[in-house]
Amino acid sequence: MSRLGKMPVLIPAGVTVSVDGTKVVVKGPKGELTGDMRREIGVEVKDNTVVTTIKQDTKNATAYWGLTRALIANMVTGVTVGFQKQLELIGVGYRVKQNGADGVILTLGFSHPVDFKAEKGVTLEVGENQTIVVKGMDRSLVGLTAAKIHKLKKPEPYKGKGIKYTGEVIRRKAGKAAKTAK
Fold first, then answer.
1. Are residues 41 and 99 in the same domain?
2. Rounded distance, CA 120 to CA 16, Å?
3. 163 sits in which H/E element
4. Taking the complete model, does pTM exceed 0.70, yes or no?
């Protein structure tokens, strides 16, 4: 049995959840999110809560049960509060500049600036030329966009230069000078 799947998802005031077969639609103050759920899992709306159950008992049904409940909870949180990830640029000359509501121009030590456009539904905010805040309703889309920006220049282990998540710990290595001194 899935411990996560058993817990109901509370629907806050101002949010509506509708279920049509395997399609779940969540509407709230920030917008609307839809998701297709697995057919092994049943989704019902009861008394301001969303309850998930197993309809077909298959090999991975309990895993999908918890996953479905988590996806619905993330959709409810997304339309009410939203999600955000923050990235930091570390390094001399590493800068970011806003380019519209959904784009940024990054200077990362390459021979050219990198123009990055976000997916629809995701906004990018720049703060102090060194931080990028990725915001949106869809948690997976926010995480994917942040991962794409992070991948442009991952932090290197010697000086730590690159793009890192706020709070990420970079494992540092000793350089040649520390290795030869005995």
1. no
2. 23
3. strand 162-165
4. yes
Average pLDDT per consecutive 10 residues, the chain (182 residues; last block may be shorter): 85 94 94 94 93 91 92 96 95 91 91 93 91 95 96 92 92 77 56
CATH number at residue 115: 3.90.930.12
Token pair belonging to 182 = 């005995």
Buried b / exposed e over 106-136, threshold 16 CB at 10 Å, is bbbeeeeeeebebeebbbbebeeeeebebbb
Helix ranges, 36-109 (H): 61-80
| Residue 139 structural domain | 83-165
Tokens 């008394």, residue? 47
Q: Which are the contacts of 42, defined by CB distance < 8 A and separation ≥ 6? A: 52, 53, 54, 55
Q: Examine the domain organization and report whether 48 and 97 are in the same domain.
A: no
